Amino acid sequence: MKRAVYPGSFDPVTFGHLDIIRRSAALVDELIVGVLQNNNKKPLFSSLERVKILLEVTKDMSNVRVEAFTGLSIDFVKKCDAQFLVRGLRAITDFDYELQMAQTNRIMAPDIDTIFLTTSLEYAYLSSSTVKEVAYYGGDISKFVPSGVVRAILEKMHPENK
Q: What was the pLDDT predicted at 40?
């Protein structure tokens, strides 16, 4: 069985993330979306909330599983008994960082390969940080994230508007 892990913060999940999830899920028998709980960051959503949101937006993908994790991504990939780690690339700046991480991971786990998928051009500009900034200032984020995610972000950022 070919199994891959796509790790990330997904705070919030965007159409760019979903593009990578759909495309990588088509390459393997099982894709595990790993939701990182990073204690060095102050996320908008808790890891449990992010898992719940991802479960909702991937419910039509039968070979996708969603799990929270802490620690190193490569350790989570090993724990999942996966052969591949999936990473999305938006720009050359992503590649520099991701190549270093892939090489480091290869030293720590020589039997696990990193698969890079370039983001579809329509999402190349998109980041979770941008979505949060636009939402914070009241901008329309419906072209960046699914409608359920729009609602969750607005409820979290502007609870007075419920």
A: 77
How distant is the alpha carbon of residue 117 from its chain centre? 13
Q: Which residue ranges form the domains of the chain, and what is each CATH number?
A: 3-157 (3.40.50.620)
Q: Is 2 assigned a catalytic role? A: no
Q: Where are the beta strands (DSSP E) in the chain?
A: 3-8, 30-36, 64-69, 84-89, 113-118
Residues forming a β-bridge with 83: none
16 known ligand binder: no
- The predicted-structure confidence for 54-93, as pLDDT tens digits, reads as follows 999 999 999 999 999 999 999 999 999 999 999 999 988 8
User: Does 106 belong to an annotated binding site?
Assistant: no
Report the C-alpha gap between 74 and 112 in whole angstroms: 8
Other Cβ atoms closer than 10 A to 48: 11
Say whether 90 is catalytic.
Answer: yes
The answer to whether the annotation marks 88 as part of a ligand binding site is: yes
Q: Residues of the chain with pLDDT > 70: what percent? A: 99
